[in-house]
Design brief:
By secondary structure, the chain is α/β, with parallel strands linked by helices. The protein has one domain (67-75, 100-150, 174-385): UDP-N-acetylmuramoyl-L-alanine:D-glutamate ligase. The chain is built from ten helices and 15 strands. The chain has helices at residues 102-112, 127-138, 188-192, 209-222, 241-249, 262-268, 277-281, 324-338, 346-363, 376-387, and strands spanning 29-30, 37-38, 69-73, 77-82, 95-100, 116-124, 142-149, 156-161, 167-172, 196-199, 226-229, 257-261, 290-294, 300-303, 308-311. The strands form three sheets. Strands 7-6-3-10-11-12-13-14-15 form a nine-stranded mixed β-sheet, sandwiched between helices. A four-stranded mixed β-sheet has the order 5-4-8-9. Strand 14 and strand 15 (308-311) form a beta hairpin. Helix 8 (324-338) runs antiparallel to helix 9 (346-363) and helix 9 (346-363) crosses helix 10 (376-387). The longest helix has 18 residues, at 346-363. It is globular. The relative contact order is 0.20. The model is unreliable at 1-56 (pLDDT under 50). It catalyses: D-fructose + ATP = D-fructose 6-phosphate + ADP + H(+).
Length: 388
């Protein structure tokens, strides 16, 4: 079964060096089909770009606009993935190095789909750090917001691939460079140029990165940039389950778009049923434009102020679920960055989410994330086959 949640990726790339840069208001309404209803009106910061319908391409999806920049903030690291699935870390005979980190995967995914993206984060001033910067550049992601720490190493994670394609993690970051990003190292000009600012929760775990994260999001919000949040729960990185829950929810009400998995809903609601709309309603705040719940191979659910529903996924044979959730997010944000009005039109939103579901499904058919992240052409071809 394919699953739409992940942070890791796999890539074979050359080592190199890269220079260090210093430095709708929506109304209330009734929900169709599901009986879900949000009775309150809400307002959000006025987007920097006007929310209006864009011309559709021949495949019926919004044309990707070069100016529709998505800036992704957070961690980028090296995953070591076993060359043979179904073994424990101790049993694995060999590991393949691969770039990982959900925000970076999303940035690459957007660029692969023809969108415009940038990554802001910190890596070590080491060979792995330079490799990661080069990988972003090679995938047409703006990496000017990357910083290099001379005193800390690039984070490492050993990832176990079980026989069903699911993963388990062992992290080495004590502290790693991504945890040491400071507010005065942020590229605020890049952030304010964005249409969407995307981030996770791992950057909230420790200082000084936590303060840098909060400052970056505030600058984006004040500039009218849409805030996109994928909590991407990784419990082993937090001091405790309660600190993880508290940390993830501490910035919940500032986001305009949130993507969560079924497991994350259960975690955040302390064991409640993630398939119950009343449970999901507890996570919907007044300023939220769009809440997405991924359900692996079964697709996703969507909730706005005016409507909610479900979009079926594409059934595939899962080889490695690494990067599937990030591919889903990339598919969604690449379309919303070009046309935020999709959120107000249920039929068009459903079409956009069909595209996102296919992005996730195609990614699980190959090992790793970055090599498996699909192009726009591949997604459109897969969509055409489903209706043929």
């Amino acid at each position: 079964m394919a699953a739409l949640y992940s942070t890791s990726s796999c890539f074979c790339g050359s080592l190199g060096s890269y220079p260090v840069h210093k430095s709708v208001k929506l109304g209330h309404g009734k929900v169709r089909d599901s009986g879900f209803y949000f009775p309150h009106r809400f307002q959000c910061a006025t987007p920097k770009l006007h929310v209006q319908a864009k011309a559709l391409s021949v495949d019926g999806l919004p044309e990707i606009m070069d100016s529709s920049l998505v800036v992704c903030f957070g961690e980028m690291l090296i995953d070591f993935v076993p060359t043979i699935s179904g073994l424990s870390l101790a049993e694995a005979p060999a590991f393949k190095k691969a770039p990982g980190g959900a925000p970076a995967n999303v940035a690459v995914g957007i660029a692969r789909l023809g969108g415009s993206s940038a990554f802001i984060g910190k890596v070590g001033e080491d060979e792995f750090g330079y490799m990661l910067a080069d990988i972003l550049k090679e995938n047409n992601v703006n990496n000017e917001g990357m910083r290099f720490d001379p005193g800390a190493r690039t984070a490492l994670a050993f990832v176990t691939l079980r026989s069903d394609g699911e993963r388990e993690f062992m992290f080495y970051r004590n502290p790693s460079a991504d945890m040491l990003l400071q507010e005065n190292e942020l590229d605020f000009d890049l952030i304010t140029k964005a249409t969407i600012f995307h981030y996770g929760s791992i950057s909230l775990i420790t200082e000084p990165c936590k303060s840098a994260h909060i400052a970056a999001a505030k600058v984006a919000k004040d500039a009218g940039v849409v805030l996109s949040y994928d909590p991407n729960l990784r419990l082993p990185l937090w001091p405790s389950a309660e600190s993880a829950r508290k940390g993830i929810l501490s910035i919940w009400d500032t986001a305009d778009i949130i993507k969560v998995s079924e497991e994350e809903i259960s975690f955040l609601t302390q064991g409640e049923d993630p398939y119950d709309d009343a449970v999901v309603r507890k996570l919907f705040h007044l300023n939220l434009k769009l809440l997405l719940v991924t359900e692996g191979a079964d697709g996703c659910r969507y909730y706005t102020q005016e409507f909610s529903g479900k979009v079926k996924g594409l059934k595939v044979e899962a080889v490695d679920t690494t990067g599937a959730g990030d591919a889903f997010v990339a598919g969604t944000l690449s379309q919303l960055a070009s046309d935020l009005s999709l959120i107000q039109d249920e039929d068009r939103l459903r079409n956009a989410l069909k595209f996102s579901n296919v992005c996730g499904a195609l990614t699980v058919t190959e090992r790793g994330a970055i090599p498996a992240l699909p192009t726009r052409e591949a997604v459109v071809n897969a969509l055409l086959k489903t209706v043929a």
